[in-house]
Amino acid sequence: MATSGGASVFSGWSGACSGTGNCPVTLDADRSVTATFTAAPRARVGATGFSSIRSAYNDVATLNSAVIKLLEGLQTENVTFGRNIGVTLDGGYNASYSAVTSKTTINGRVEIQAGTVRVNRVVVK
Fold it and tell me: How far apart are the C-alpha atoms of 10 and 32, rounded to whole Å?
């Protein structure tokens, strides 16, 4: 079974087998199998992944009470919350967003101009 590093997720097999499940290969000749991994999204709302906190916030800008889940570890960006909505930043998720394993540290400026922002397991440096 292929396993990913901390900030990536398994996305599939290619070569002598394909798909995302088990990869049985009959070794009756030379065979090659490649496991492919992709970078985990830095933020997630529902099942949709985003490359930044800002892009996740912009996507949910009309949704009051939206929860933006954040990948564990360090995220470097400046974020401005400027809409009259309430959001929750829920940090510390593993790469598959299946469990909270740590915290998220935002290295940058976080500015709240309007609305409310609740945080869980998020540190701002």
Answer: 18
Q: Output the pTM of the full model.
A: 0.77
Residues 91 and 119: beta-carbon distance below 8 Å: yes
Quote the Cα angle for 79-82-86, to 5°: 95
The two tokens of residue 114 are: 């309007």
Listed residue (110, 89, 112, 93) closest to 101, CA to CA: 93
Residue with tokens 């967003």: 97
The model's pLDDT over 20-66, given as tens digits with 9 standing for 90+, comes to 889 999 889 999 998 888 888 999 999 999 999 999 999 987 778 89
Start-end of H helices in 7-124 = 53-59
H helices of 1-96, where? 53-59
